[in-house]
Write a structure and sequence with these properties.
Layout: E1 10-12, H1 20-31, E2 38-40, H2 57-66, E3 72-74, H3 85-94, E4 100-102, H4 109-120, E5 127-129, H5 137-147, E6 155-157, H6 165-175, E7 183-185, H7 192-205, E8 211-213, H8 220-233, E9 239-241, H9 252-260, E10 268-270, H10 277-285
Parallel strand pairs: 1-2, 2-3, 3-4, 4-5, 5-6, 6-7, 7-8, 8-9, 9-10
């Protein structure tokens, strides 16, 4: 692509069996295309998955550093690994146009997450997807440090990572004073009951979050009960996913109070595949 001839705005090359050589060529060429807003090299499941790997680090760094038009960069499932995050750290600190970065399924781990977190403060990113990256409590704590600062990040996806109650406590503590984050997804993370309680404390102070996903987070009755009580008084949250969280009819009183609370703003509630039963439903809806 020559600078004077390139008018591309969107380039989607998912599932094309693109490896390091092709990936580096694409990223290098994209640097010289001033109209390009979106690049999608995601490796979707199935045949012909892309696998550009960490050898594209220099080309990726040059693109993110120098581009003034790129808004969305999707690199999910490309085997980038933790080493890619060091050049990305430097590039993100210099970039002021990128709004969405998808690094899902790249095995960046806690080290890579730490490097990215250090670049988020005062950055331009609004949406960051880090699902399925083997991120644990150390990485979550690094992200919490970034969330405590001044940043534009509004949506964070951490699904299917190894974040447990300790990481949940760090994230929820940071979000008590964060006024930018509106969407947080931790689906499939083993937060446990203590993780649910930690986020319930967060919701007592946070008035920015609009959507939370705790699907398959093992919240149990104690964590769920605490969340229902907190959501009942929260005036910003409109969507809550607690499907497959092992919620039983022991939570029926708090759930019913939440649904009948005049302060509650929930419009979308997902409690699929729990153990609520008839007793809970009667308690919640008999006076509806």
């Amino acid at each position: 692509m020559k600078p004077n001839n390139c008018s591309l705005e969107t380039m989607v090359l998912q599932s094309n069996n693109i490896g390091p050589v092709g990936g580096a060529a694409i990223l290098a060429a994209a640097t010289s295309c001033p109209s390009l807003h979106l690049i999608d090299l995601s490796a979707k499941s199935g045949v012909n998955r892309n696998h550009i790997g960490s050898r594209c680090g220099a080309a990726l760094q040059a693109l993110v550093t120098n581009s003034t038009s790129l808004r969305e960069l999707k690199l999910g499932g490309n085997g980038l690994g933790p080493l890619i995050c060091s050049p990305l750290h430097d590039a993100l600190k210099a970039n002021h146009s990128l709004r969405l970065l998808d690094l899902s399924g790249n095995g960046i781990g806690d080290d890579g997450c730490g490097a990215l977190s250090a670049a988020l403060e005062n950055g331009s990113l609004e949406t960051l997807l880090l699902s399925r990256n083997s991120i644990g409590n150390t990485g979550a704590t690094c992200l919490a440090g970034a969330l405590s600062g001044h940043m534009l990040l509004q949506s964070l996806h951490l699904d299917e990572n190894a974040i447990s109650a300790k990481g949940a406590a760090a994230l929820s503590s940071a979000l008590r004073t964060n006024t930018q984050m509106t969407n947080l997804s931790l689906a499939g993370c083993p937060l446990g009951q203590d993780g649910g309680v930690a986020f319930a404390r967060c919701l007592q102070d946070n008035n920015a979050l609009q959507s939370l996903s705790f699907k398959k987070c093992r919240l149990g009755d104690r964590g769920s009960d605490a969340l229902f009580a907190a959501v009942a008084e929260n005036k910003s949250l409109t969507s809550l996913d607690m499907s497959t969280c092992n919620v039983s009819d022991e939570c029926s009183v708090r759930l019913g109070a939440m649904l009948n609370s005049q302060s509650c703003r929930i419009r979308i509630l997902n409690l699929t595949s729990n153990r609520l039963g008839d007793v809970a439903m009667q308690a919640c809806f008999c006076n509806a």
